[in-house]
Amino acid sequence: MIVRDATEADLPQILEIYNDAILNTTAVYDYHPHTLEMRQQWFSTKKEQGFPVFVAEENGAVLGFSSIGPFRPWTGYKFTVENLIYVAEKARGKGISKLLMQPLIDAAKKLNMHVIVAGIDATNDISINLHKKFGFEEVGLFKQVGYKFDRWLDLKFLQLTL
């Protein structure tokens, strides 16, 4: 397994992973699958803003991806980013998220960021524990701010000060 910078050619597989998260998990509080055009715009925006997108690849298959991006749009937040990590359903539990996390932290440091924020569904213990292993601390809980699969969802915020 290798972790590398994503390319435009990876976008169909990235889209498949992301759409699975939308349709089958509470990792994304969205209801409708994205299109390839939407993923292309997302990727283009990441590159324009100077933010990395990484993929974990094995035997030509993208099994996960990660990125950082703006936390909030106002200038005063310019040293804070939010991270994202998604792993293909068939590859979960194999340590891929761990492989994708360190490059994000390293990239954030190179970009002179001060804080990485993670917004995680409060029931996603696996993701919360992963972030804690990398030094993230829980800093907030927003109760019932999301609604999906006929239930209210709580959102935890964790942060890593670099």
TrEMBL record:
It comes from the Bacteria. Keywords: Acyltransferase, Transferase. Transmembrane segments: none annotated. Gene3D superfamilies: 3.40.630.30. InterPro entries: Acyl_CoA_acyltransferase, GNAT_dom. The keyword Nucleus does not apply. Residues 1-159 form the N-acetyltransferase domain. The keyword Transferase applies. CDD domains: NAT_SF (cd04301). PROSITE patterns: GNAT. This is N-acetyltransferase family protein.
